[in-house]
Amino acid sequence: MKHSVVSLTINGAERQMLVAPGSTLIDVLRESQGLTGTRRGCEQGACGTCTVLVDGKTAMSCMLPVETIEGAHVETIEGLTPPQGLHPIQEAFLQGFATQCGFCTSGMIMVAAALLAKNPNPSREDVVRAISGNICRCTGYEAIIDAILDAAVRIRSAAHAEAA
Predict the structure, then answer these.
(1) What is the CATH number of domain 4-79?
(2) How many whole angstroms separate alpha carbon 61 and alpha carbon 38?
(3) Domain made up of 88-163: CATH architecture
(4) Does residue 139 surpass a pLDDT of 90?
(5) 82 burial type by CB count under 10 A (0-12 exposed, 13-18 middle, 19+ buried)
(6) 69-124 confidence digits (pLDDT tens)
(7) Which of 83, 117, 144, 156 is deepest in the core (most CB within 10 A)?
(8) How far is residue 17's CA from residue 154's CA, in Å, rounded to a whole number?
(9) What's the rounded Cα separation, in Å, for the pair 73 and 20?
(10) In this structure, are residues 29 and 52 in contact, taking their beta carbons and an 8 Å threshold?
(11) How far apart are CA 27 and CA 40, in angstroms?
């Protein structure tokens, strides 16, 4: 088996890495890059736990061969967190008690980030549709939905304050 060199921009930093054939993005993120915020779940693309953003769109990193995204921009939960504190989505999840065991949280937050980047004022139905590929066995989803709607308000308020 011949390894290949793959170039990615991960959380804003350009990286070149040697990868084995068939390596998935989650393998690279967790094992060679030390970014363990992306969780391994079902490893079949059905639970959403491993969700990251690839070129701004959600992707199940457990199913994505890293060779197929050469040159892509990848954002993980670690890249979402600003140096000065928590992202508004993270704040909303914490303050809204939208986490229990926390296993699904990074995937849910990344889905929320993609949704809010595309639609800063989503309806409840938009949020439900966006998280429909992510499984949570603890919260019953209501707190997660409310947190994402709250995060949308926080982000719009921050944007309005910056514009003023």
Answers:
(1) 3.10.20.30
(2) 8
(3) Orthogonal Bundle (1.10)
(4) no
(5) exposed
(6) 999 999 999 999 888 889 999 999 999 999 988 899 999 999 999 999 999 999 99
(7) 144
(8) 37
(9) 20
(10) yes
(11) 9
Counting every residue written for the chain, the total comes to: 164
Q: What would the two tokens of residue 91 be? A: 């704040």
- The domain ranges of the chain are 4-79, 88-163
SS3 string, the chain, reads: CCCEEEEEEECCEEEEEEECCCCEHHHHHHHHCCCCCCCCCCCCCCCCCCEEEECCEEEECCCCEHHHHCCCEEECHHHHCCCCCCCHHHHHHHHCCCCCCCCCHHHHHHHHHHHHHHCCCCCHHHHHHHHHHCCCCCCCCHHHHHHHHHHHHHHHHHHHHHHC
Q: What is the reported pLDDT for 159?
A: 84
Count other Cβ atoms within 10 Å, centred on residue 76.
25
SS3 of 22-49: CCEHHHHHHHHCCCCCCCCCCCCCCCCC
Q: Contact at 8 Å (CB) between 90 and 81?
A: yes
Q: pLDDT digit string (tens) for 14-34?
A: 999 999 999 999 999 999 999
* Close Cβ partners of 98 (under 8 Å, ≥ 6 residues apart): 92, 105, 108, 139, 143, 144, 146, 147
